[in-house]
Structures are given as C-alpha cells and as structure tokens.
Amino acid sequence: MSDHAVTPNRARSIYVPQGDFGVTGEADAYFTTVLGSCVSTCLRDPAVGVGGINHFMLPGGDGDGADIMFGVNSMELLINGLLRIGADRGRLEAKVFGGAGLLGISKQIGEANAAVAREFLSNEGIPIRSISVGGGEARRIQYWPATGRARQQLIDASRAPKELPPPRKPAKPAAEDMEFF
After folding, report:
1. Phi/psi zone of residue 158: left (φ > 0), alpha (ψ -120 to 50 degrees), beta?
2. 10 Å Cβ neighbour count for 108?
3. Range list of H helices, 11-168
4. 81: closest CA among 50, 107, 102?
5. 16-54-135-132 Cα dihedral, nearest 10 degrees
C-alpha cells in the first residue's frame, strides 16, 4: 500500500480491483469497485470502526487462500485481514453487492457468486445488513467502513467497464497491495 498524505476533510478512496480485497481502520477512507457478475462483500466491526471489502470473480474455492479469485478464499482472506487490524469476528456485519447477469453465462456465475457470499455469511453467523444482487446491470460501489455507509450506482451493461478474464497466475494477495486512483 502506498503512503499517501490524507488531506483533512477529504476522504481517501481505495480502489479494489477484481480478485483482490482491502481492509482499513482509517476513519476518512472508503472503498470503491465496479461489479458485473463478480460479488463484493463489505464487512465491518462497528465497535472499533474497521472494515473492508473483497471483489471475487468465481464461486468455489476451498478456504485455503490459494486463489483469491474464488468466493470462499476471498471471504476468509477478508475476515483474516480484519482480525489483524482489530476486528472481532463476533461483531462483524455485512453488506453484499453484485452478481449481475450481464451476458448469458455470467448470469449463472453471478447467481452462484451471490449464493456463495450468502451461504458463507450464514455459516459464519455474520448478519447481512443489506444486499443488492442479481439483475442485469453492473454496479459501482462505494463503502465507508467506519460508518457502514454504502452507495450503489447501477450502470447500464452496455456502458459498464468490461470485466477482465481471470489472470493466468494471480498475485499472492496482501492487504498492503491496493490500487489508488
């Protein structure tokens, strides 16, 4: 993660690309991403004001963290990142976005991605405070973990940025590796 000076009264935007996640305890930071069939789960511990977001591309995974593109692995890595910065697993709450069916097969992938997020959170006893999944439009998401505020902008599929194919060899995930814009 780059160290950028934070201007007072100006929130710091942290972009989370496909197959990645981010966590923060900064009160003035927010996450942003764009989703098609991918899903993002926004998690936070409201008692300490830390939170994060993931952006997974495909359902499946085995929880060993080997490939962050997959839902279960991405969810585990996000939770572990939050625990490292002071979150308590028992206080986590979630908001879930994405899983759109933009083109033929992506509808099935989107539905499966959303199901993975819901099932994982249910199994872990993490309450979902809000959910917006499915449909035929991409979403631009902004999430402020310190307050739990989330904003969603629906994007006409014909104008949405194209989701990239999975990378051949995904980079090893690290909370420090985030892209800023």
Report:
1. alpha
2. 12
3. 71-84, 105-124
4. 50
5. -110
Q: What is the DSSP letter of 7?
A: P
**Any alpha helices (H) in the chain, and if so which ranges?**
71-84, 105-124
Give 41-87 pLDDT, tens digit per residue.
Answer: 999 999 999 999 999 998 876 555 556 678 899 999 999 999 999 99
**Contact of 34 with 102, CB cutoff 8 Å:** no
DSSP letter assigned to residue 11? P
- The reported pTM is 0.79
Hey, what domains does the chain have and what are their CATH numbers?
13-155 (3.30.1330.200)
5, 37, 72, 155, 170 from 162: Cα distances, Å: 31, 11, 24, 12, 19
The per-residue pLDDT for range 82-107, each reduced to its tens digit, is 999 999 999 999 999 999 987 766 67
CA distances 104 to 6, 109, 110, 157, Å, are: 43, 10, 10, 12
